[in-house]
Amino acid sequence: NAGVTQTPKFQVLKTGQSMTLQCAQDMNHNSMYWYRQDPGMGLRLIYYSASEGTTDKGEVPNGYNVSRLNKREFSLRLESAAPSQTSVYFCASRSEGSYEQYFGPGTRLTVT
Amino acid sequence: QKEVEQDPGPLSVPEGAIVSLNCTYSNSAFQYFMWYRQYSRKGPELLMYTYSSGNKEDGRFTAQVDKSSKYISLFIRDSQPSDSATYLCARVGQAGTALIFGKGTTLSVSS
Fold first, then answer.
1. Cα of B98 to nearest chain A Cα, Å
2. Which residue has the higher pLDDT, A9 or A95?
3. Fewer CB atoms near the end CB (10 Å): N or C, chain B?
């Protein structure tokens, strides 16, 4: 039982490049989330998916797109990376009927 | 004003000390709270959750909620060097789904 997994662990991009961050969970959770964590800002919600086939914007969605591929997988795409998107990205999941979220190990992204 | 306020520290204590970590919140909807521990360069790990006023214990950890003053606390008894981490408090957001986090308090326990 791996919980929430994220790939890649690290990535360096040049401004304007695109990439997709992958997230998968094996806990049969309905809801999945993408957060970013910046020094002095804490964790902020980018997008979430309450169930397969639905996605909603969070606090800081600009510059990102998401896809809920199936119940297990939720990806985050940066179409044209900017230095302001340098951050650590965390995926989380939650089961129906509870509020507790379980986090993955994170992806550390640097945009130069 | 951010919905969940948390003193970032850093907080340094000797091994064996009792640690008190505190948060305040401003929105009374969905009064369901969580504490996460985050080691350096790792993901947040759920420590405790609580939704009622009063205390909830789990081993050396006690979570306390005072809804009248909108104040939540985490107490760590007999602190250990392995407790050195950043502690994040969180409240369930108004939509009942996402979490609203404080900025985290960094704790260092020296042996």
1. 7
2. A9
3. N
